[in-house]
Amino acid sequence: MTADNWTMKSNNSPRSGSSGHTDGPSAPSRGRSVVVALSVSAVSYALVQSMVNPGLEALRGHVHTTQLGVSWVLTAFLLSSAVLTPVLGRLGDQVGKRRILIAVLLLLTAGSLVAALATSLPVLVVGRLLQGAGGATLPLAFGIVRDLLPTARVGTTVGLIAAVSSVGGAIGVLVTGPIIDGLGVPWLFWLPAIANGIMVLAVLLTVPDTGTTAAGGRMNWPAGFLLAATLILLLLPLSLGQEWGWGSARTLGLFAAAVAAAAAWVAVETHSRFPLIDMRVFRMRPVWTANLASFLFGVTLYSAFGFIPSFLQTPAGTGYGLGESITAAGLLFLPATATQFLGGLAAGPLARRVPTKTLLVAGSVPTVAGFLLLAVLHGSAWQVALGTAVASVGFGIGLSALSVVVVHAVPAEHTGAATGMNANIRTIGGAVGAAVVATVLASRTTTGGFPDEGGYTAVFVLLAAAAAAGLLACLLIPAKADPGPQAEEATADERVPELVDRPRPF
Q: Concatenated DSSP letters for 54-74?
């Protein structure tokens, strides 16, 4: 299938990203094929992201490393994803989103193959670095949807892809145990390698070329380097600060260096003729408020799915532990997976009837309630399953609706970069949340090596507070954060007057 026989939206001006559309009899089926391919691609990355965390102990034995060593399996992936997501998103805007999406899926496949064949930690880390490129899958998918589909369908479709992707992350927690028990540790990577290889073919066959939306220019590699340095210098101490000590010279020095690198990055971007991330986009109220809310969603979502499986597997001998196996702990996330998917699926249709801001605020309430419920009731498996299921309703609604806010708020030529940074900010929130959770639990560790029950209760209360802060952040989002299902696509100048091109020093 080529761009020539795509009939849902024709690009008279490939670089504009905002032309009219014509519908033909084959448009609905072709549209569904594209949405399915993009959704499954997003799920493939989400599975890669989430399957490893519950299997870390099995991976540690597989590659014969220490507890600190195996933590690099997560850290390498986190750093790679954070650095490559906005860069690849911007490249998609400049050289074509379909082309970059195929390259991303190939890197994801290659990384999975390397990790599957790894018998030592360094080789496994290389595989995880390659897999991190998959972080650009979601922003590229959003950009393709915006380029190809009529404006009235963009919000619903973006919400659907975001919902399916978030459920993919929950499914990863669910299937890790059965894969390790039934097939072995390498199959945590063989299965994604096969799936992503198939998705390369699916995208080639179903997704048409959309051209480019960035109005000329070139890739700003100095800005990319400074952004990468900022993220690495920030995420390294967040990931390893518990091991190094939060007050150590190494931790504090890296945080200080991150601040300096961030200042240099902003200065370069502000004065660049071809910015990687246009700082004027970040000053738009819908964008910065959505990014703030995404950060707080990341704090709660990624923290919860990171430590609750460990809580479920805590031995009963501690007096409060449930002693569940890794497989049983994953199965207990099945209700949460279902409610997160249903919440995300409902977000699109609901956004047609109520303002996005109202939807986000209402969607935050179940997340607050779920963590408060867990703080009080966590003495049995069904109580934990109930609390996570309630909280996940809000996760599904929030992640879908926030993606829609960003996609609709920015000009077409900034879609990949802006949504990539939104995903990055959520990842940073997850790293901050994980660091806070690890610190609290470590401070309450008993002589048996496990945190006491009060430590987990404190964590649930902290996450409820973070979810409440996320609710307040959603209140800051403008009441009309998206143009609605019947609005016409605005040009960059109409949508954001302050983004009208004007001379820059270089």
A: GGHHHHHHHHT--HHHHHHHH
